[in-house]
Amino acid sequence: MNENRLNGDRTGRGRIWFTALAGTKCRQLCPIGSVLAADTDLGGHRVRYLAVVPDAENRFPRARSGELGLEEGWNLAKQIREVIDEDQSEVRRPIIAIVDLPSQAYGHREELLGIFLACAAAANAYAEARFAGHPVVSLVVGNALSGGFLAHGYQANRILAFDDPGVVIHAMGKQAAARVTKRSVAELDELARKVLPLSYEIRAFARFGVLHELIEGVNADTPTETDIKKVKAALQRAIADARVGSRTLENRLTSPEATQTRKASIEVRRLLTAQWKRS
Amino acid sequence: MTNATSPQALAPHLFGISFIELNARERARSLMDEGSFEELLGPFDRMKSPWLPAQGVVPQSDDGVVIARGAIDGCCTVVIAIEGMFQGGSIGEVSGTKIACALDLAYQDNEAGHRTYAVLLLETGGVRLQEANLGLAVIAEIQSSIIALRRHTPVVGVIAGMVGCFGGMAISAALCSHLIATREARLGLNGPEVIEQEAGVEEFDSTDRRLIWSTTGGAQRYETGFIDQLVKDDVAAIRTAVRIAFQQSLSAKNRTAEIDKYLAFLARVNPTERLDASVVRNLWKGA
Predict the structure, then answer these.
(1) Is the CB of residue B149 less than 8 Å away from at least one CB of chain A?
(2) Of A135, B158, B164, B272, whose Cβ has the fewest other Cβ atoms within 10 Å?
(3) Residue B119 DSSP class
(4) Does domain A2-248 bear CATH number 3.30.70.100?
C-alpha cells in the first residue's frame, strides 16, 4: 500500500483532507492548481489552510504527482507571507499545512532553476510566520518526505499526524533509499527494527517527540463527519497550545519522548552551552 | 561588489594557500584572527553518533563538525565547519545538533547585546542516511536557528568544495544572509545520481561531468544569482569575502523573500523544452 502511495499516482489525501477541513465553498487563493490555499472558519476563528496536491496540468512535468516543485515552493511562500502582512495589527491567524507529498521534484530543470531556493522560500515563510506569533500547525495525512517536508510542514510549531499505515515521515522514500543504499526493501525493514531513526512506521517516529499528537482512529482515505470533527478538535488544541508556547522549536527536545530517544541531542546542547558560557 | 582591498595586501602570509585542501578544523582556524581560535565540544569531549556503530560504521569523536569561537578582524565570530571527509559531511543527530545549538547560542549573545557573527563552512551531502529521520529533524532545527539568527547578525555560508552542499543543507544554505562559493563548489537539492535513479538517465545523466558542473557548479550559481560572491580557492580570498559579507546591511532583503521576482523568472521559462545552462543565465539577466 505504501509503495503505491509513494508513487503519488492518485488524487491524494492532501486534497481529500483539504476539502474535508476547509469545505468546498471557500475561494481558492492560489493561482496554480497544485497549491491549495483557503481561509475558512475553525471554531469561530479564521485560519488559513495550505496543501500541495497532484495536478496533471502542472506546467512543470516533474511536479505533477504532488511533489514540491519550483512553483509550489514559491507559491506557498507567497500565501504564507500574505497572512503575515495582513495580520500585523490583528490576532495572528493560524496557518495549517496539510501534508501529503511524495518528495521534492527531481529534475534537471528543477536543479538549474534553483529548487533548493524554492524549498527555502517556503520553509523561511513558515518559520517567519511562527516567529511573528502565528500558530503554525502541520497535519500529516500521508507522506511527508525529505526536502518536500522541510519546505512544507517541518517549520511548524506543532506537528500532528494520523496513526495510519499510509502515514510516513522520513528522510527518503523507502524504494529510493533502498536503491541509494544498495539494499533490498526487506533488508531496510530489518535494519529499521534495530535502528529507530530508520523506521518508516509513524509510531516509531512518534517516539522522537517531534509530534505534538498522533491522531488515532481516523479513516484517512474516506473521512466521516466524526473523523473530521475529531481532527478539527485536535487542530484547535494544537493552535491553543502554540499560542501560549515558545515560538522556537525547543519543545521538540523537551517532550517526554525526546528525553528518552534524543539523549545525544540533549547532551550536546548541555555541554556546548556550558563550554560557550565559559569561553 | 564592494571594492575591497586585495587579498594579498590584507593577509600576505595566507595568499596562495588552497582552502579546499584544508580539513574542517584547519579551515575554521585559517579564517580566524591569529591565536583567537577556540574549539568547543571538540574531539576530546567524545560526543559521537549513537546510531552508527549498530550499522557497522566507525563513529568519529567530533561527529564531523567543528565549532570554533574566536575573532575575524576583531569581530566576535562562531565558525561552524562541516568535515566533508567524514561520511560525506552528512548531518546526523550529534553533528546537526552541534550546528543548531551553536547558532542558538550566537542568537542569545546577540539578544544580550554582544554582537556575534556566524560563518557556516558547508561541505555536506545533506541528511546522513544512517540516521535518516533524526538527520532530517535536526536539519529543520538548523534552518529555524539560521532564520532566527539572521535577523540579528549576518549568517555567512561558504561552499568551497569538493563535496559541495546538497539535500536539506542546500535549503539551509539558501537561508543564510550571504553565500560565498568557489568554482569548485556545487550547490543543489538533489544529487545527480538520485535524479538519474528517480527520473531516468534521459532526465539527468549522472556520468556527464559537464552537465553536472554547468547545472550546480559555483560559476553557474553565481551567474544566475543564487550566490553572492564567487571567489578563488584561496584562504586569503575567502577571508576577504567573509569580511565583505560581515559589512552587509541587515536590512538587505533575503533571496527567499524575493517571491514576485522569482515567480516572474519562472514564468519566463518554457518547461516543455530542455533547458540549457546558458539559457538560464540569459533569463536571469533579464529578470
Answers:
(1) no
(2) B272
(3) E
(4) no
Grid coordinates belonging to A93: 491567524
Q: B258 vs chain A: nearest CA distance in angstroms? A: 9
CA distance B283 to B287: 6
Enumerate helices (H) and strands (E) in chain A, giving the number of each: 13, 7
Nearest to A81 among B255, B259, B280 (CB): B259
Could you report the per-residue pLDDT of B63-114, keeping only the tens digit for each? 999 999 999 999 999 999 999 999 999 999 999 999 999 999 999 999 999 9
| pTM exceeds 0.90 for this model | yes
**Tens digit of each residue's pLDDT (9 = 90 or more) over B194-220:** 899 889 999 999 999 999 999 999 999
Question: What was the ipTM of the complex prediction?
Answer: 0.95
Q: Do A176 and B272 lie within an 8 Å CB cutoff?
A: no
Judged by CB atoms closer than 8 Å, whether chains meet at A171 and B135 is answered as yes
The C-alpha angle B40, B43, B45, rounded to 5 degrees, equals: 70
Question: Could you tell me how far CA B62 lies from the centroid of its own chain?
Answer: 19
Can you give the residue ranges of every domain in chain A? Answer: 2-248, 250-279
List the single residue in A with minimal CA-CA distance to B258: A121
For B7-252, the fitting CATH number among 1.20.120.640, 3.90.226.10, 3.30.160.620, 1.10.10.10 is 3.90.226.10
Q: Among A170, A171, A267, whose Cβ lies nearest the Cβ of B47? A: A267
